[in-house]
Each structure stands twice: as structure tokens, then as C-alpha cells.
Write a structure and sequence with these properties.
Layout: E1 7-11, E2 17-19, H1 22-30, E3 35-40, E4 47-50, H2 52-60, H3 70-81, E5 83-86, E6 92-94, H4 97-102, E7 108-113, E8 118-121, H5 123-141
Antiparallel strand pairs: 1-7, 2-6, 3-4, 3-5, 4-8, 7-8
Length: 145
């Protein structure tokens, strides 16, 4: 498996531990990694993650200079908040409190595969997002009616 796909909802315990779905761990581990890299989304109320290798590729596209270009600013914002979170022996990660707050997570989190990355959503917010997307897709397929 080389891509993140599917949707899985898991519990968050009182210590902020969250089990990463086995198919997502398999993608990361196939790349020789034992952790995930996660950051708050720039534009949505969720967290985004992948293997750390994905963010190394992002960094390789940023110019090494003292003045940022406009294209580098998004990468800089991501790197500012990026955290590498190791898997424990049971395939869990510990989410930082500020990440839990950013995504409005409570006792559950939904992992959503997005191909080269995944997102972590509060389940009710994900349901609303999905309904909005279905509405837009249906409208586009019907010619905007």
C-alpha cells in the first residue's frame, strides 16, 4: 500500500493517545518510518499528516536563502507547526494539546485518507464537510443546477 485511503474513527484517551489505523501505519512503515508527521491544516479545522519523508520533500523545494519567496511561505507555516509523533508499541501517537484544540477533538477522531496525506477530523465536523462536498459534486455533475 502506497497511499492513504479510507476513513477510520478511533478513540482518544485522557492522555491524548490516539491509535493510528493499521492501513495508515502500513503506509508509513513501508517507507521505513516509525512515526508520523502531523501539523494543523492551514485552511481547515483539522490536522494533516503523512510520513516525515513527505515533509522532507516539501522542504527540499524551499529555497535556502535569508528572504522567503511567496511560494515558500506556505511551506514555512507548515514546518513551524509540524511535529514528528512516534508510534508506541500499540500503534498509538500522543497528540499535543494544541493540536487537539485546533481540530476541536474530544473523545474520538476520524482519520481520512487523502492519497499522499491523511487528515484527522472531529467526526461530526467531518460529516458536515462530507455533506457539503457531496452537494457541490452533485451540483457540478448536474451542470450547476
Amino acid at each position: 500500500m502506497t497511499a492513504f485511503f479510507g476513513t477510520y474513527t478511533n478513540k482518544i484517551d485522557s492522555k491524548g493517545r490516539l491509535s493510528v489505523p493499521a492501513p495508515f501505519r502500513a503506509v508509513i512503515q513501508a517507507r521505513g518510518r516509525t512515526s508520523v508527521a502531523i501539523h494543523p491544516s492551514l485552511f481547515e479545522p483539522c490536522l494533516e499528516g503523512a510520513g516525515y519523508d513527505r515533509f522532507e520533500k516539501l522542504l527540499s523545494g524551499v529555497a535556502d536563502g535569508f528572504v522567503s519567496t511567496a511560494g515558500d511561505e506556505a511551506a514555512e507555516l507548515i514546518m513551524e507547526d509540524l511535529r514528528e509523533l512516534p508510534f508506541d508499541g500499540e500503534g498509538r501517537i500522543v497528540l499535543p494539546a494544541e493540536f487537539i484544540a485546533k481540530a476541536s477533538l474530544k473523545d474520538q477522531a476520524s482519520f481520512v485518507g487523502r492519497g499522499w496525506k491523511f487528515q484527522i477530523w472531529e467526526p461530526a465536523a467531518l460529516t458536515v464537510l462530507r455533506q457539503e462536498k457531496l452537494r457541490r459534486v452533485a451540483a457540478n455533475l448536474k451542470g450547476g443546477t
